């Protein structure tokens, strides 16, 4: 089974190009003001224009309102909406309104957290299994936190899914071996500091994906 990768939180042409040239199937643009990776409309438009048709542009949001979604979709020419902390009913309304595929983030720390995935049946096109960030953390993702991947062993996934949370070029192989993920997502693990993507680490991550 082939594994593909989304490189998330890109904010410069150079690192975006490293992701595209390295073979990423998806690139992620963050639209959440508290994040060090958040994009202005102009920057999103500048980056979106560099993305070839075979690579999907994923917009990352935290319970967004319609105005933010409309601005971001228009500027970033988004193909997919990744929604964190967005209830199933609101996610369904966003899907109906935008017509775009929805990836619903489920924050995982314990096995019980996996029950939330079923609540997105009929709504989400994919579940993004992400690690739960610590209570009071500024961000619900993008903090390099990983969860116990063995929790996914034997789990009957109700929907297509991808794996994220604390992945990096070194732990990727073990993560995929334990979970069977065919799509993986990374942000902090290819940065030199929060919000600063590192082209060398992006290339190393995508090389590790190819080597699986
Ligand atoms: O990256 C962000 O700033 C961000 C902000 C708000 C919600 C999600 C965010 N990132 C997503 O978090 C996961 C895991 O990231 P990491 O590899 O552990 O740093 C990933 O899906 C990002 O898209």
Automatic annotation (TrEMBL):
State whether keyword Phosphoprotein applies.
no
> Which InterPro entries does this one have?
Aldolase_TIM, PRAI_dom, RibuloseP-bd_barrel, TrpF_fam
Per the record, what are the reactions this protein catalyses? N-(5-phospho-beta-D-ribosyl)anthranilate = 1-(2-carboxyphenylamino)-1-deoxy-D-ribulose 5-phosphate
Write the Enzyme Commission number(s) for this entry. 5.3.1.24
The residues covered by the N-(5'phosphoribosyl) anthranilate isomerase (PRAI) domain are: 5-207
Q: In which pathway does it act?
A: Amino-acid biosynthesis; L-tryptophan biosynthesis; L-tryptophan from chorismate: step 3/5
Enzyme group, top EC level? isomerase
Give UniProt keywords alphabetically: Amino-acid biosynthesis, Aromatic amino acid biosynthesis, Isomerase, Tryptophan biosynthesis
Which GO biological process entries does UniProt record here? L-tryptophan biosynthetic process
Give the family this protein belongs to, as stated in its UniProt record.
Answer: Belongs to the TrpF family.
Question: Cross-referenced HAMAP family, in alphabetical order?
Answer: PRAI (MF_00135)
UniProt protein name: N-(5'-phosphoribosyl)anthranilate isomerase
UniProt gene name: trpF
């Amino acid at each position: 089974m082939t594994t593909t990768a989304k490189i998330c939180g890109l904010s410069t042409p150079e690192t975006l190009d490293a992701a595209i040239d390295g073979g990423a199937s998806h690139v992620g643009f963050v639209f959440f003001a508290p994040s060090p990776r958040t994009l202005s409309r102009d920057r999103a438009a500048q980056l979106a224009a560099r993305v070839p048709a075979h690579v999907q542009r994923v917009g990352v949001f935290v319970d967004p309102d319609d105005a933010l979604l409309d601005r971001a979709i228009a500027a970033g020419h988004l193909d997919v909406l990744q929604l964190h902390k967005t209830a199933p009913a609101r996610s369904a309304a966003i899907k109906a309104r935008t017509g775009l595929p929805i990836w619903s983030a489920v924050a995982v720390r314990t096995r019980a957290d996996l029950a939330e995935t079923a609540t997105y049946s009929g709504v989400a096109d994919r579940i993004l299994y992400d690690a739960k960030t610590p209570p009071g953390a500024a961000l619900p993702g993008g903090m390099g936190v990983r969860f116990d991947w063995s929790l996914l062993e034997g789990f009957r996934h109700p929907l297509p899914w991808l794996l994220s949370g604390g992945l990096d070029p070194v732990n990727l192989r073990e993560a995929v071996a334990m979970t069977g993920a065919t799509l993986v997502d990374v942000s902090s693990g290819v940065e030199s500091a929060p919000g600063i993507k590192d082209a060398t680490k992006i290339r190393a991550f995508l090389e590790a994906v190819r080597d699986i």
